[in-house]
Design brief:
Structural class: mainly alpha
Mean pLDDT: 85
Helix content: over 70%
Distance between the termini: 33 Å
Largest sheet: none
Strand content: under 5%
Radius of gyration: 21 Å
Low-confidence stretches: none
C-alpha cells in the first residue's frame, strides 16, 4: 500500500496538500458560477444562486458521508491486511451512492417549487432558484460519485491524482461557464449546466483509475450488508454534516437577512460565503487529508503515530487560520469589486464591512473541523457528531437568535464568530475527555 512512505511528516504533507487543493477547487466551482452569473446576468441572479447553494452543499455532504465512512472502514481493513473485504466495502458504497443520487434527482424535480420556497426564494429570485436546483439535480449522480471517488482515490494511495483530476474539472467548468453564460447567454441555467457537465467529465476521469490495474479497490461480488451500510453512514455522518454546515449556515443567514434587513444584502453575504466556504473546506481538507492515515494506524494499533498526525494537523490549521484572516482583509475590497458593479457604491462599502466582521470567525473554525475529523477517523462517531451538529446548526441558530434579539440586523454579522467560539468550548471539552480516557 502507498499509505506508508518515507516518514510520518512526509506522508502528512503528501496527503494534506492534494486534499487542500482538491477542496479549494470544489469551493471554486460555486464561486466561478457566481462570478459569471453576476457579470453575465445580474446581481439579483447571483442572490438566486446563493439561495440555491444549500442544495449543492447537500449533494457534496451526502457524497462525503458515504465516502468518509467507507474510506475509514477500508483504511482500517487495509491496515489489518484484509484486502478482499476492503473491495467489498468499496463496491457496496458505490452502489449505495448511485441509488441515493437517483432518489435525490427524482425528489428535486418533483418538488422544485416547494424546495425553492423552503430555501428562501422570493418573488424576484424564485425563477432563478428553481432553474438552478433542477438543472443541478439532473447531474446529482455525477456530483455525488465524483466527490466520493475523490476521497476514495486518496485512501487508495493516490492523493496527487485526485488533485490533478479535480483541477482539470475546475478548468473545464470555467471554460464551459464562459461559453454558456457569456457567449451563448444561457443565464443561470447555463451556469448550472456547465458545472454539472464538468462533474460528469470528472467521474469519467476517476473511472480510468478505478478500472486500471493500479487500484486496490476493484468492483467485486459482495454480500449485501445492512450493518455495514449503517456502520459507514454512522462513521461518515459527522463529516457529512461538517460539509453540509456551510449550506445550513447559508440557509440560516439568508432567512435572517430577509427577516431583519433586506434582499439586497443577500449579495453582500454571498460574497462572504464564497470566502468562508473556502476557509471551512480548507480545514475539512486537512481533516480529510489525515483521515486515511489516522484510520490506517488506528487499525494497526499505533496510537503514537495517529496522535502525532493530529498534532501536525492542528499546527498546520492554526497557521492557515491566521493566514486566511489576514489575506481575507487584504482582498476584501478588490473581491467585492469583482461581483458588484461600480454604480452600486453603497452596497460595495457595506459588503466590505460585512466581510471584515465575518473574517474573525476564520481564526476559530479550524480547530473544530480538524478535531471533529480526527474523531471520525478513529471511529468516535458520537464526539464527532456533537461537534458537527453544534458547529453546523445548533450554535449558529442560537447565535443568530441571541444577537438579532439584542442588536437586530446588525447582530447577524457577528453570529459566525460567536457560533465558532461556543463550538470551540464543546470541542475542547470532548478532546480533553478523550485524552483522559487514553491515559487510563
Amino acid at each position: 500500500m502507498k499509505l506508508e512512505g518515507k516518514s510520518l511528516k512526509h506522508d502528512f504533507f503528501r496527503f494534506i496538500i492534494p486534499s487542500l487543493i482538491a477542496q479549494w477547487v470544489y469551493a471554486l466551482y460555486t464561486m466561478i458560477d457566481g462570478l459569471f452569473v453576476a457579470r453575465g446576468v445580474s446581481e439579483l441572479a447571483l442572490s438566486g444562486v446563493n439561495i440555491a447553494m444549500p442544495f449543492v452543499t447537500l449533494l457534496f455532504s451526502v457524497a462525503l458521508m458515504f465516502a468518509v465512512g467507507s474510506s475509514t472502514v477500508i483504511a482500517m481493513l487495509l491496515g489489518e491486511k484484509k484486502e478482499q473485504e476492503a473491495k467489498e466495502v468499496f463496491t457496496q458504497n458505490l452502489l449505495t451512492i448511485i441509488l441515493v443520487s437517483i432518489m435525490i434527482t427524482v425528489l428535486v424535480i418533483w418538488k422544485s417549487g416547494e424546495i425553492a420556497a423552503f430555501l428562501g426564494a422570493t418573488g424576484k429570485t424564485a425563477a432563478y432558484v428553481r432553474t438552478y436546483i433542477t438543472t443541478i439535480a439532473c447531474f446529482s449522480i455525477f456530483f455525488i460519485v465524483s466527490y466520493s471517488l475523490e476521497v476514495l482515490i486518496k485512501t487508495d494511495g493516490y492523493p496527487m491524482k485526485a488533485t490533478v483530476i479535480v483541477t482539470a474539472g475546475a478548468v473545464l467548468n470555467c471554460i464551459l461557464d464562459y461559453v454558456f453564460v457569456m457567449l451563448l447567454k444561457k443565464g443561470v441555467w447555463g451556469a448550472a449546466f456547465a458545472t454539472g457537465l464538468s462533474q460528469l467529465i470528472v467521474v469519467l476521469l476517476y473511472l480510468t483509475h478505478f478500472c486500471s490495474q493500479k487500484t486496490h479497490m476493484k468492483l467485486v461480488r459482495f454480500p449485501l450488508s445492512a450493518s455495514l451500510a449503517w456502520r459507514t453512514m454512522k462513521i461518515g455522518l459527522s463529516s457529512g454534516i461538517t460539509e453540509f454546515s456551510a449550506g445550513i449556515v447559508i440557509f440560516l443567514f439568508n432567512h435572517a437577512i430577509l427577516t431583519y434587513l433586506n434582499e439586497e444584502l443577500i449579495v453582500s453575504y454571498t460574497i462572504v460565503t464564497y470566502v468562508s466556504t473556502i476557509v471551512v473546506m480548507s480545514m475539512a481538507g486537512i481533516a480529510q487529508g489525515i483521515q486515511p492515515l489516522v484510520s490506517y494506524y488506528y487499525g494497526r494499533r499505533q496510537p503514537e503515530k495517529y496522535h502525532r498526525l493530529l498534532k501536525y494537523a492542528l499546527c498546520f490549521g492554526a497557521v492557515f487560520s491566521i493566514a486566511a484572516f489576514v489575506l481575507s482583509r487584504i482582498i476584501a475590497v478588490p473581491l467585492v469589486g469583482l461581483f458588484i458593479s461600480p454604480g452600486l457604491s453603497e452596497l460595495r462599502s457595506t459588503s466590505v464591512r460585512v466581510f471584515y466582521t465575518v473574517s474573525y470567525s476564520f481564526l476559530l473554525c479550524g480547530f473544530n473541523v480538524i478535531i471533529g475529523g480526527f474523531f471520525t477517523a478513529i471511529e468516535y462517531p458520537r464526539s464527532a457528531m456533537a461537534i458537527s451538529l453544534g458547529r453546523g446548526f445548533l450554535f449558529v441558530a442560537l447565535s443568530l437568535k441571541l444577537l438579532t434579539a439584542l442588536f437586530s440586523g446588525n447582530g447577524i454579522w457577528w453570529a459566525a464568530l460567536l457560533a465558532e467560539g461556543l463550538c470551540l468550548l464543546l470541542t475542547l471539552f470532548l478532546f480533553f475527555y478523550y485524552r483522559k480516557q487514553c491515559r487510563q
